[in-house]
Amino acid sequence: MRLDDLAIDNCLKCTLCNAVCPVLAVHTQYPGPKRLGPELERLRREGISTDTEWVEYCLGCHRCDLACPHQVNVSEMIARAKAEHRKPLVRGLRDWWFARPGLLGRLTTILPALSNFALSIKPARFLMSKLMQITPQRKFPSYTRPNLRSPAIAEKESQRVIFFPGCFIRYNRPDLGRVVIELLERNGLTAEVASTECCGVPAMANGNAAEARAVARANVKALAQQVDSGLRIVTACSSCGHMLKTGFGGALVDEEEFAGAAQKIAGRTYDLAELLVEQLDAGKLNINFQLTDLRLAYHAPCHQRSQGIGRPWYHLLRLIPGVTVEDMDAGCCGMSGTYGFKQEKYQVSMEIGKELFASIDAVQPQMVATECATCQMQIEHGTTFKAIHPAEILLQAYGEQKTGR
Fold first, then answer.
1. Domains of the chain, each with CATH number or no CATH
2. Per DSSP, which regions of 106-263 are E strands?
3. Are the beta carbons of 302 and 241 closer than 8 angstroms?
4. What is this structure's pTM?
5. Which of 82, 281, 322, 361 has CB atoms 3.0–4.6 Å from 291's, for a disulfide?
6. Cα three-residue angle 86-87-89, rounded to 5 degrees
7. Percentage of the residues of the chain whose pLDDT score is greater than 70
8. CA distance 203 to 242
């Protein structure tokens, strides 16, 4: 019997999942995870039609799963219902594209300057709002040619890891990928860039289960041999990390050919900060940081919390002399990847983020650190403060010192 067949009967209707749901907190008509998850799942398994547009409003933040005292996989039940939901034509077409950021990345980076211009001008954004229901209030991130490459093999012996960059780093911020590689090098780790594409989170979030399974299979094929040889995988995106640790196994649980390899990959995947903290605990982290006068606000993304690894970036940033870090601990930002780009969800997205925006405004930091790219977009959209990946701050704190290679 599958684990989720048992988990559904563990729901005791305690409503703790509802209490932590960011959408329910701002949208009183939203039925909440208890209703959309285990309650309707019982009917769905009896073949009773329960299709409702409300499943589209689930953020996929997994706070309901973390809150459940009986380990009911609430978000997975809602995700399966979302995959079966019948969408209007326009939304269906929009979400088909949103589910494929790797394809979008390949197309937009053929002529990135032209793509960036087209995505930035008001007439184009107006047309997208009318034809594809993409809110004109949002700005798209800039695209650049994918030029992230594996570094040369280190001259001295160092530990090799596989760097899973994901779509955003590959197509929008390859410079951030190089920051990750250098940060690893300064701490005794040589990164090999994985020949992978999207992690599959956008496909799951947009209700495209077939695409999620397809990219999961492709990624498992690309990573399985390296993991079997003893290499570990490192991610610098909390959503990618969450997917590699949990999503591949969930998407491929019924596929015997891939399920075992997916579980091995899950057990060998580390968030970048998680790996650096391990180096710190082993006395191998380079802590020769320069004095840096900086006041930071730190926001932990939902998919970082869902990994159950604490707040490793918050811990690492506090090692830098002169840096003060305020942990916002103010809930979900509300962006949730492509969710905040959707016209019908834009206002909900901003309402969810209000608590975080207010907390940041109260602290008045010089900048905000958060490891999720779309959290960064949301924070910059909802406040006047710049938001960057904490890896950039940590690398800058080394100054001009050499890596020791």
1. 3-84 (1.10.1060.10), 284-396 (3.40.50)
2. 159-164, 189-193, 232-235
3. no
4. 0.93
5. 322
6. 130
7. 95
8. 14
